[in-house]
């Protein structure tokens, strides 16, 4: 979710610094399109197209230290690219880079998940919104940490013309036609599609594990599975499966469709037929079950951790079978969502946990302090722990999600 704050746009020195920063970023982001997984949209198979890097396998750091933990940082609701024609928009992107950098340096995760609303496309009059997407992933890439991303409801939302532009102040100078050499004809208001954003991320980055789902799931795109494999270098045995789903919004309704549920059912049965491998699931917009979990917990906050009452759960528009499938699988340990910037709770629900991430970006609505949810997976014996790491370095809401 995002709302554009009505902030003052008094010019100050930050504007100049910010423009310089963006130009530099633009230069840095032009890397050779080096991905071994590079492909073209012409090669579309009926099954999963553009499978994630290395067959979607992620290994514990291992090495001589024999590391037995695998740490994942969740960056949610960054909302890059807001109000590029003002001073506060670019400034808040710099602030978001700072949040991510601080958390990456404190936690040193093995992997990062970008949990949707990476950009606020409905506030971006730009030909290719990958320009801002790339800025959002840069702190992770700069530290050589692999990552995966999925879509939120703002990532491909159509541009919303600000009413102010039709007043006496008129249409402001738009950065994409001046500062970034994108040329006037490339300053577009049509938006950038999910497929274009994902294709650009993969083509430019050999560290991206993001995958496309099969074509029959479109317009939902970010549907794929990654496997965390054993730290023992001679073993390919899975320690945990991570499912990524597109919960819609933006260019189509906020929902996980019946056909996506069917895809999950087939995929999970194929990869984990006896439910012996622990599984976790990521998407952006909470399912309606989150409302029930919060309601049940409200009187006593029984077993829940984190911020529960800053705002109401803003759930998907409908439930089309996904939750039923997840409830039936004993291997599903937790679901992680973003979307509600004021919530960061985890609550038990049936045999699993429903968790929010933590609003990481300075973009989007709300001024709650920024942070990130961290997951720690331990092998032999398996355990899954989580906590919130804040921008100021403090830690809270530690919880054991599975042992
Ligand atoms: Zn959001």
UniProtKB/TrEMBL annotation:
<dbReference type="Pfam" id="PF00149">
    <property type="entry name" value="Metallophos"/>
</dbReference>
<protein>
    <recommendedName>
        <fullName>Calcineurin-like phosphoesterase domain-containing protein</fullName>
    </recommendedName>
</protein>
<dbReference type="GO" id="GO:0016788">
    <property type="term" value="F:hydrolase activity, acting on ester bonds"/>
</dbReference>
<feature type="domain" description="Calcineurin-like phosphoesterase">
    <location>
        <begin position="70"/>
        <end position="341"/>
    </location>
</feature>
<dbReference type="InterPro" id="IPR011230">
    <property type="entry name" value="PAP14/16/28/29"/>
</dbReference>
<dbReference type="InterPro" id="IPR029052">
    <property type="entry name" value="Metallo-depent_PP-like"/>
</dbReference>
<dbReference type="InterPro" id="IPR004843">
    <property type="entry name" value="Calcineurin-like_PHP"/>
</dbReference>
<dbReference type="GO" id="GO:0005737">
    <property type="term" value="C:cytoplasm"/>
</dbReference>
<feature type="signal peptide">
    <location>
        <begin position="1"/>
        <end position="32"/>
    </location>
</feature>
<keyword id="KW-0732">Signal</keyword>
